[in-house]
Amino acid sequence: MVWTSQDCSAPRWNAGSMADLAALFPGKQFISTVLEALETKTAMSGDLARRYLMRALMAGLIIGLMYVAYFSVLAAFSSADGDVGALVDIGRIVGSLVFGWALVFIYYSKSELLTSNMMIITIGAYYKQTTWSKSLRILGLCYLGNLLGGLLIAVLLRFSTLADGEVGTQMEHAVEHKISYLGEGAAGWGDLFVRAILCNFMINLAMLLVYNGLIKDDLTKSLVMIVSVFIFAFLGFEHSVANTVLFSIIGLQGGLEILPALGNIAIALLGNFVGGGLLIGLYYAYVNDQRRYDPETGRRLPGRRRG
């Protein structure tokens, strides 16, 4: 699977042209980086499937640990003396900032997160650098690993006091809220779906900025990822993997309704794919597709089909 210079590099433009391909299709570096990442993921999910699964497990473990930190911050502020309403709001802000580091840790530890892979496999499918069967294998292994990581942190918490008291209460309230969407009929399902779309839109918007080659320093990359996760955590967007991890934690504590939880995850998965796979992945693949244009004239090639 090779992404050649003929496919993605910007050719020279005649002096008389009004613009060059680099200006018309500025996402060349982003597409190239994504397809290189896809090639690695495809190889690992094949002959190195166990190692790929372990990378995905680490992402689930990181999300679980950062979720515990998030709810611990909420618990600390809600238990403090003073204006409870104001303290809870401050706790949500601080907790969301703490949770924002989850994506940074996942990115720099080379762990594998399902939701960012939704963007990558969609771009790969658009450019015919992969098949849907290989893409589904990547997503399936990644979600399984994320789930196993969530179960691992859930088991560890089961035999500790980290989720006791107010921390556990905050987690239970969050689970009740997430499950309540399913009991509100079409309006609740739609609300959940929209929140899932926006959640992965923010996640993959951050990855777009990280992959596009314009941001060179690690500090700025980290800030981009922190802000994107802060927005989804603070606004209450729905992340399928984070929900899976949270449900696993509460499930091992003995307080989870299984069917509504599965319904939440299913809708969140669909919404996450729309937000990351379609609104970011498919959109940026299409608007940066220069293959149908003559590099000398900039005109659309007659009868040229995509791919």
From TrEMBL:
One of its GO terms (cellular component) is plasma membrane. It holds the Pfam family Form_Nir_trans. It is a multi-pass membrane protein. GO terms for molecular function: formate transmembrane transporter activity. The chain crosses the membrane at residues 56-78, 90-109, 138-159, 192-211, 223-250, 262-286. The keyword Membrane applies. Keywords: Membrane, Transmembrane, Transmembrane helix. Its main location: membrane. It is found in: Membrane. This is Formate/nitrite transporter FocA (FNT family). It comes from Serinibacter salmoneus. The lineage of its organism: Bacteria, Bacillati, Actinomycetota, Actinomycetes, Micrococcales.
